[in-house]
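Subject: complex prediction, re-run

Hi both,

The earlier run crashed halfway through, so I resubmitted it with identical inputs.
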Amino acid sequence: MSSIISIKNLRKAYPGGFEALKGVNLEIEQGEILALLGPNGAGKTTLISTVCGITVPTDGSITVGGFDTIKDYRATRDLIGLVPQEINLEPFETVFSSVSFSRGLFGKPRDDAYINRILDQLSLGDKQDSKIMALSGGMKRRVLIAKALSHEPRVLFLDEPTAGVDVELRKDMWDIVAGLKADGVTIILTTHYIEEAEAIADRVGVINGGEILLVQDKSELMAQMGQKQLQIAISDPVDEIPDALSAYALERSEDGLSLTYTYDTTGERTGITTLLNDLAAAGLVMTDLQTKQSSLEDIFVGLVKETT
Amino acid sequence: MNIYAVQTIYRTEMKRFFRTITQSLISPVLSTSLYFIVFGAAIGSRIDEVEGVSYGAFIVPGLIMLSVMTQATSNASFGIYFPKFIGTIYELLSAPVNFLEIVLGYVGAAATKAMFIGVIILITAFFFVDLNIAHPIAMVAFLVMTCLSFSLLGFIIGIWAGNFEQLQLIPLLVITPLVFLGGSFYSISMLPGIWQTIAMFNPVVYLISGFRWAFFGTADVSIGISLAAIALFTGACMAAIWWIFRTGWRIRQ
Ligand SMILES: Nc1ncnc2c1ncn2[C@@H]1O[C@H](COP(=O)(O)OP(=O)(O)O)[C@@H](O)[C@H]1O
Ligand SMILES: [Mg+2]
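This time it finished cleanly. Structure:
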């Protein structure tokens, strides 16, 4: 697959000097769903805004569909639809005219049939003549999506589309995203919900403190998640791990009363049975056993901790 | 050129105007009628002709200018300030449009609205006074130029303003006084000596004088200077807007 968006060494310092992006490199593949995962203030919105042209980069370069976002801004912005994090809508407009406005602004001739189709897809069909201020929060978010799709973009940015949205709407949103992917739209969404990244993304990028810490196929991340840990409590503390057990790469706790064994649940053999036998042979008495699964959350928290 | 974008912005802005058409038109018509009653009938009856024109007729160009300048400024400033205020500006900034297209849309609509109001006031004036317009084409040209240049000024104010107070500050503190002191209701030659000199520093004097010349063929300053003044003012506003968009001042960080 080829990259549709290519971000090279992107830096963004806001007036006042704060550096919100510190040299971001990111390749986004055509047709994929990429979830950008990061805590508040990580730089997710800044990254999106810079690609879309709302803020100007301090350094580095961005291409979308092979075009430079500064030099060929018309070509790149043509390709992009943006659903912003905040619900920014004109309250007195009707749903239809607001969406139609977006289409015109992006240089497309008026096409009421197309807009009606989008509104129907987003379950807004019966709301098209409603004033935006009369809509619920979830409906407003759908309007934002409709506006972003009004000019038939090839890339869609969704900035925290499900923040503060109820469970049902979140599921709807995931269905909408899946439908767009089926149409070949490349989707980049930001979130701080790990389950969301897990549920719909093809790849997951972790961002913190203005840096991308990792970008990985979700399946690879899931494989890491397949690792489990076995915690073994022993009756008498050990100063060091006996040589006979060196093959298991055990970790000793500080008080020497607990040993941790990491194994792969997806492997054919876990090695637990032989480990337990060897422990007994080495004269260690077990008092308790406990297993723990590392989740995407652990990986994420671990990565974020490392950088702070 | 993203023609669709210009049309879309222009139409949406005009729609906003027509949605509140009654308020948009009643208030200038009402206030103009009041001016005619107070200045034209009550005070005017004690003032003889000014430069060969009855006082009621004499104030018509100034009245139109007063409304057109304030309306153009406030329409244009509100037009671009509002998306900033409610956050919908993100769409303008991420759309494939350049500064010229945004300005054409917003300033074009604001100027059209001001034009509407100017024409309505002129029509109202015909009900109160006898008017013969000496140079109709020049009159229209001056009206258009004024609508345009003050809409450009309003656009700059709207981009600059960080809150609603600031949005109203310049029209209130600068434009209204300059228009009132710019000879809307009197001829500069009626002022005592030193004030005549001071008045010449007021740019609005040249606009009102030129506009009045188009109506009556007489003016405080020569028509050439008036034309140069409005061209200069328009040019300065355009240069300021060009600079704003080049640097992203107050809109694109
Ligand atoms: N307009 C701005 N001016 C100055 N600093 C900003 C601005 N916008 C965001 N920031 C700062 O940049 C950092 C990243 O913000 P943002 O991109 O919004 O993060 P996220 O979307 O991941 O929560 C934050 O520390 C934030 O305070
Ligand atoms: Mg954000």
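Residues 167-182 of chain A form the longest helix (16 residues).

- K.
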